[in-house]
Amino acid sequence: MENLWAKCRLNNRYALAILGGLVWTAAFPQVGVAGFAWVAPGLLIASALGSTRGESFRVGYVAGVTHYLSMLYWLLLIPYRWHGIPFGPALGWLALGAFLGLFPAAWVWLVRPASRDAGSPEPPSSRHRSLLPGLGAVLPRNWILRSGWAVAGAAAWVGWEMILARIF
User: Any long-range contacts for 139-148 (C-beta under 8 Å, 24+ apart)?
Assistant: First the structure.
């Protein structure tokens, strides 16, 4: 079962990141499902579980670009046309989406849990309680460390949002 889960997760890492980006967009007023704001960061982290630092950055970038391109669709409605082609708005839409996608990528890179040791099995006490096999080898072992990791991840998310809103 663990090999099947690992293979499925590796094959669908980017699909899960795209889903996370679209769920994140659905939390905003156009769709307005506020509960998705709680689900989207979890999907971003889940897509990066057990990956290397570089892979987690790429997965976060795919999710971020998906989110910002789907959220900023209105830039394509700018009436500027060059020979009938909305070249300017489309170029600005892609450039802005590519730039803003760096923020979720940096967040996923920063907070993704690192694998402790791929060769060491999970402790027997946590194996039967785990909803997802192999997850215990990635997350901190006790609940105090897991809580600290969750609070640090939330603080980093708010920090990135503050930087994005106030500086850029």
Answer: 139/113, 140/113
